[in-house]
Design goal:
Blueprint (H helix, E strand, L loop, with lengths): L10 H9 L2 H9 L3 H23 L2 H18 L9 H40 L5 H19 L3 H11 L5 H8 L3 H26 L1
Length: about 210
Amino acid sequence: MPRQEPSSPIPHIRRLSATASDTELVRGVCEGSEHHFNALYERYFQRISSFVYLRVRNRADAEEIVQEVFTVVFRSVSSWRGQSSLSSWIYGIAKNTANNHIRRSKSQALRIERAESELVQSRHSIDHCSPEDRLNLRRCEAVIRDRLASMSEWHAEAFVLRHFENMSIGEIAERVSRSNDAVRSSLCRMKKVLVEAVDAERAIAN
């Protein structure tokens, strides 16, 4: 399986990465050699990481995408027939994975915007809404509370600091002792929880 990080490869993995051909590495991976996969990972990790980061411009997202890329490589390397270079094949996987992430992010952003708009409208009209609407709002709140309970406390704190105290990303990062990218990624995940809660409430209501 793909390693979680490329730090400090043991000497024989480093030698294998430096001396073996791509074909030899692929053959070893197909035969189930973890050493060969680690050597392949060591050879391409930095290049793929840089490529992905330039596309998404967020280190936390880039790290997740790179791990997904190498998971795909590990699972489908036997399909590489040598008709193109291994680097081109891996870059193609990285490009598709990053593009899929970008499309999902844009779609998610639109859903988040709609959900936030609906919740704002709901807060303004709650005193005039029907009993059915009040029930739906309570269901939505229950789903949000349930999903927030499964997340680390600092994620909820970062969300509150951002949306209720209007703190900057840098200020939040300092408060919760996390990197700026980690805070941005956390805020995105928290917004996804919001959207999923609204979608779940709609499914129940319909």
